[in-house]
Amino acid sequence: MKVDRPENLDSEARWRTAGDRIQTLLDSCATGGAAAQERARELVREVVGLYGAGLERIMLLAQDGPGPGLAERLATDDLVASLLLVHGLHPHDLHRRVSDALDRVRPYLGSHGGDVDLLEVTDDGVVRLAFTGSCKSCPSSAVTLELAVQDAVRAAAPEVSSIEVVAAESAPGPAVIPAESLLAHVHSTSSTWYPVPELAELAPGEVAGFLVSDVPLLVCRIGDLPLAYRDHCPVCDGSLAGARLRETLLGCPRCGTQFDVIHAGAGADGTHLEPLPLLVRDGVPSVALAEPMGAPA
């Protein structure tokens, strides 16, 4: 017969009365006025909704079968993992979570001719990375990849204190590139991710235009990989609407310039399309748009 320890009984009793305590706290917010009480109620609804979605996801994952594989499925699901991290219950250590996050984003990095190496994760939460590949020759592409990597790492490991970029061994110049120099553009902008579920419907080889937060985008799909660019030709200064994709080359319908979409949109004479981070976040294709700090919303 199982006998509960006193601390287990105390914990169970506490959770059984949690609803009453929450209602008491909500009622106390009424002293701050109707607006304060409504904000408190909205906060509770958001928290309950988040955990409800997490429980629903756990039940769906559990339907795939119990056993050792279930814990791994829970740990690698974005929504469930975020809740486990909040309560310190995630089974993977910091290094493993950072490494797994980089593995998930590598196909996107490769689409822009780049890659990233995990050099070190220190005890105080500093992650040191080295970017490699042809993306370094295109500033807009480099910034795009840095934004994608930062988002992936911080989503998987929110306790990371900082992300430092170190020059690849084969690169000339100093061994360490100051983060404030290399990531100056990233640090001067705030990035917002916008879910665009329609991107999942793109067929291989298809090109489509989208308007996301009043920003015109052109999205094409190479195999299973969707790629996003601003709808702007740097050669003729016109729109790319109507562009066609031939293998990996996107042709501007106005000036005829060909851009290699799997190499950061490289065109003739050093021109580049402007790539934008496009990742699957919580199962939904999402695009990141950056605004200068202090810019009007």
TrEMBL record:
The keyword Iron-sulfur applies. Keywords: 2Fe-2S, Iron, Iron-sulfur, Metal-binding. Residues 193-287 form the Rieske domain. The keyword Iron applies. It comes from the Bacteria. PROSITE patterns: RIESKE (PS51296). InterPro entries: FSCA_dom_sf, NIF_FeS_clus_asmbl_NifU_C, Rieske_2Fe-2S, Rieske_2Fe-2S_sf. GO terms for biological process: iron-sulfur cluster assembly. Pfam families: NifU, Rieske. GO terms for molecular function: 2 iron, 2 sulfur cluster binding; iron ion binding; monooxygenase activity; oxidoreductase activity, acting on paired donors, with incorporation or reduction of molecular oxygen. PANTHER family: FE_S BIOGENESIS PROTEIN NFUA, IRON-SULFUR CLUSTER SCAFFOLD PROTEIN NFU-RELATED. May be involved in the formation or repair of [Fe-S] clusters present in iron-sulfur proteins. This is Rieske domain-containing protein. It comes from Mycobacterium scrofulaceum.
